[in-house]
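User: Last request for today: this protein with zinc ion, please.
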Amino acid sequence: MSKILSAKIGPSILNADLSILYEESVKLIDNGADYLHLDVMDGHFVPNLTFGHPVVKCLRKKIKNVFFETHMMVSKPDQWIEPMADAGVDQYTFHVEPVKDVGAVCRKIKEAGMKVGVALKPGTEVDVVTEYIELADMVLIMTVEPGFGGQKFMENQMVKVKWLRDNYPGLDIEVDGGVGPNTIDMCAKAGANMIVSGTAVIGSADQRKVMSSMKQTVNGYLNN
Ligand code: DX5
Ligand code: ZN
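Assistant: Here's the final one, the structure of the complex with zinc ion:
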């Protein structure tokens, strides 16, 4: 089972200037982003709207070699698998809460050629993942209620991250929401290795420094 995990920083472009999404993305990549975390919202699963597969497809045409994760905050994740695969998405991360047959959605994502991310809202018990953990490439523990950037980090979610790390030492575990220089230590200590950070990175005058110091913190705890 044991694979060597590495720390990866995936900035969320939600709070970037979306009128220049390409430039904002290139800047993040040039400053050391390991992947891009693209927040897709449908105004139904969450009370907000962002963008969908047409925008992701345009971005992919201009950015060929960077790992794209779409964080699907949508009520019908099943519906967007094919369009997102066609748009060139590498990993399709969806919320289990509105889904009846999580395993079936996981399989469909894999068949479409993407990696599978399974996301849990703060109120969802972590042990629901045991049923389909074999089908998931990554588990995302939300550290805010999904829907908006710039919210306060929920420290009480760290117990879920720790539970996952204790039970699945080789699993990619992602945290998302309120993660930045002030909260990274808690995430890293609990065992997260994939770090989504929105406002803390986008709003920083030195993106490179913020991302590299978070990465260093995570690497300091990993595989030790
Ligand atoms: C929230 C999104 C997050 C968000 C992160 O629903 O899933 O990815 O943009 O932004 P910060 O880091 O500002 O909480
Ligand atoms: Zn997100």
